[in-house]
């Protein structure tokens, strides 16, 4: 069993990230007596309501009042409780940005935010219910840890890890069912701040996060059939970022594509760009995601395809980046 | 503290407010002066706290949801012994722990506030946590009347009533002035008591400058009746300094040298 786990949930092959989150949180309720769960009329939608069945006294549905939701969570954390707050990402990161900043991060309150329906995963609900800005907002909060798990098993591990993590944590998960990336809850190492190396490669690296990771793996396999060696990193933690893993990719492949269900401005790709720029090492970076535009409506999978965040789109991007000729830069070897 | 001592302490705190905003060259004297009597009654009569041990678990909590009245809070904390009175002179200066709005970096400050409307929710969360754990701590919030225009306040009021938080009291500093003028002209909050009662709160109306009335209102709390308590204090913005009284312009402005001298004369203790 993986480090730190005393139990696993291994029937998650057919569960959404949110469903497994509800199950895991309930199990954690038995381990952490100070754990309280809060939501704003989204007990069912976010699956945090599962906790209520076992712990009705430690569950608070504050009604459709998100600002008060975060204020109350802050007050509870100040009083020694361990509040876990769930609502849609759009409400957590946008409506309540100031509450997360002032009530939670600024005052170092140990509040865990599990935001569901992130990115375009709430496809058919439309743009007001998508959230393609939350990574940017949360990255900018001093002291905030930001995680985007790739599948239900990773979500389970992230929620477990967040309980032991000192300080506020933002975990963004989707609404839709994503094909499981991992075989089981303990079939991989999960550590906050450490990317998971899914595939080795020497030609190009695809760094993906959240629900775009399975597509990145598929794209790597497709590219392998074309004779390309594609490294794949699952960058589940956007902050603190895994500098070592990113720099390894820079040195090994010199070509990086990032994929995120988010605006390419100030999201995961930008975080990777920060690391590359600070290193002084040369590297091509192409960022896949929403190109500074508002999302359109459609099925979640169709939106991944439309925005070129699925395997097809990533393969296309791989082709583009591989065509770029920077062998002409004869000084490269020296710069390394 | 005896009633006469409380009145004298309130005058001292008013002198502190005027002095430190003068020294800082900026700050919010108006609302600090209007809430000074309540804050004095709270800190020097009612509150269970240990200034020498600010993290004592048995303490009651005070949350200044109207965080801009930091000067009255800092004066009360310093006069209670949380930190040296001399620290007050550092207000708003580089290196000081006294920010323009409350910060938990100051001993005795429970919650960092300043963005109006946020503090009451935090107080509700704290009061709820105490109920959950069966702890007897009491929770005091200070709200402004203009602040009630913030939608979040009504979310918090609703929640406190819903969760029957009778361990929570808020003082509403009803001075009827906000930055841009009279509250009732900018965006009226009346009839306030009716609104609060409709949100399942126990409402007590007092003259916010009558120390004995404030003491009596605080002594009636907690009622253990399943309802949070709101004390609506009818107050005068800038109370105690003649040229500041009922002038919205003194919301966030510091007195100059001449004004400071006059204010201190008006706030001097009477000859015995």
Features:
heterodimer, A: 336 residues, alpha/beta, Rossmann fold, 2 domains, seven-stranded mixed sheet, five-stranded mixed sheet, 14 helices, 18% strand, B: 272 residues, five-stranded parallel sheet, two-stranded antiparallel ribbon, globular
Tell me about this structure:
The complex is a heterodimer of chains A (336) and B (272). With 336 residues, chain A is of the alpha/beta class. Chain A contains 14 helices and twelve strands. Chain A folds into two domains: 10-172, Rossmann fold (3-Layer(aba) Sandwich); 196-323, 3-Layer(aba) Sandwich (Rossmann fold), CATH 3.40.50.920. In chain A, strands 2-1-3-4-6-5-10 form a seven-stranded mixed sheet, sandwiched between helices. Chain A has a five-stranded mixed sheet with strand order 7-9-8-11-12, with helices on both faces. In chain A, β8 (204-208), α9 and β9 (230-234) form a beta-alpha-beta unit. In chain A, α1 (17-31) runs parallel beside α8 (152-164), α9 packs across α13 and α10 (243-253) crosses α11. The mean pLDDT of chain A is 94. Chain B is α/β, with parallel strands linked by helices and 272 residues long. A five-stranded parallel sheet of chain B has the order 1-2-3-7-6, with helices on both faces. A two-stranded antiparallel sheet of chain B has the order 4-5. In chain B, α1 packs across α4 (70-80), α1 (3-24) packs antiparallel against α10 (257-266) and α3 crosses α9 (211-219). Chain B is globular and about 50 Å long. The mean pLDDT of chain B is 97. At the A-B interface, α4 and α6 of A face α5 and α6 of B.
């Amino acid at each position: 069993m993986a480090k730190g786990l005393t139990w696993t949930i291994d029937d998650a092959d057919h569960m959404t990230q949110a469903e497994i989150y509800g199950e895991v949180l309930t199990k954690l309720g038995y381990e952490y007596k100070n754990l309280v769960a809060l939501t704003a009329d989204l007990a069912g939608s976010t699956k945090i309501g599962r906790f209520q069945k076992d712990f009705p006294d430690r569950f608070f549905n504050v009604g459709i009042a998100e600002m008060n939701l975060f204020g109350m969570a802050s007050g509870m954390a100040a009083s020694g409780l361990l509040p876990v707050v769930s609502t849609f990402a759009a409400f957590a990161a946008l409506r309540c940005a100031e509450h997360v900043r002032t009530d939670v991060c600024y005052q170092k309150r140990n509040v865990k935010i599990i935001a569901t329906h992130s990115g375009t995963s709430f496809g058919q609900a439309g743009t007001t219910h998508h959230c393609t800005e939350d990574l940017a907002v949360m990255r900018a909060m001093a002291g905030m840890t930001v995680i985007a798990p790739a599948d239900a098993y990773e979500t389970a591990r992230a929620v477990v890890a967040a309980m032991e993590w000192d300080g506020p944590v933002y975990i963004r998960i989707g609404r839709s069912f994503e094909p499981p990336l991992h075989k089981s809850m303990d079939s991989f190492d999960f550590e906050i701040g450490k990317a998971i190396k899914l595939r080795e490669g020497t030609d190009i690296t695809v760094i993906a996060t959240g629900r775009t990771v399975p597509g990145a793996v598929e794209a790597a396999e497709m590219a392998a059939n074309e004779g390309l060696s594609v490294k794949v990193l699952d960058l589940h933690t956007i902050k603190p970022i895994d500098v070592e893993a990113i720099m390894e990719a820079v040195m090994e492949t010199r070509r990086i594509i990032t994929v995120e269900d988010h605006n390419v401005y100030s999201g995961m790709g930008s975080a990777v760009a920060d690391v590359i720029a600070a290193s002084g090492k040369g590297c091509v970076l192409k960022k896949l995601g929403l190109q500074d535009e508002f999302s359109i409506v459609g099925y979640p999978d169709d939106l991944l395809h439309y925005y070129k965040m699925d395997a097809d789109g990533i393969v296309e991007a791989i082709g583009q980046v591989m065509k770029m000729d920077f062998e002409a830069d004869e000084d490269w070897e020296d710069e390394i | 503290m005896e009633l006469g001592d409380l009145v004298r302490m309130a005058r001292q705190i008013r002198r502190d407010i005027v002095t430190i905003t003068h020294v800082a060259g900026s700050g919010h004297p108006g609302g600090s002066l209007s809430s000074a009597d309540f804050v004095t009654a709270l800190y020097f009569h009612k509150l269970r706290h240990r200034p020498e041990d600010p993290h004592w678990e048995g303490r009651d909590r005070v949350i200044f949801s109207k965080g801009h009245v930091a000067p009255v809070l800092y004066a009360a904390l310093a006069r209670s012994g949380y930190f040296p009175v001399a620290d007050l002179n550092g207000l708003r200066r580089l290196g000081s722990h006294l920010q323009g709005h409350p910060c938990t970096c100051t001993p005795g400050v429970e919650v960092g506030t300043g963005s109006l409307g946020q503090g009451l929710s935090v107080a509700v969360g704290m009061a709820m946590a105490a109920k959950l754990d069966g702890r007897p701590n009491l929770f005091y919030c200070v709200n402004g009347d203009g602040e009630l225009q913030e939608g979040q306040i009504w979310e918090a009021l609703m929640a406190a009533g819903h969760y029957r938080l009778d361990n929570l009291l808020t003082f509403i500093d009803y001075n009827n002035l906000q930055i841009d003028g009279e509250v009732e002209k900018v965006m009226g909050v009346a009839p306030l008591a009716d609104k609060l009662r409709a949100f399942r709160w126990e409402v007590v109306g007092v003259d916010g400058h009558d120390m004995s009335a404030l003491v009596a209102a605080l002594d009636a709390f907690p009622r253990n009746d399943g309802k949070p308590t709101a004390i609506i204090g009818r107050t005068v913005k800038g109370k105690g300094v003649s040229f500041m009284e009922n002038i919205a312009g003194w919301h966030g402005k510091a007195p100059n040298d001449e004004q400071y001298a006059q204010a201190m004369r008006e706030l001097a203790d009477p000859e015995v």
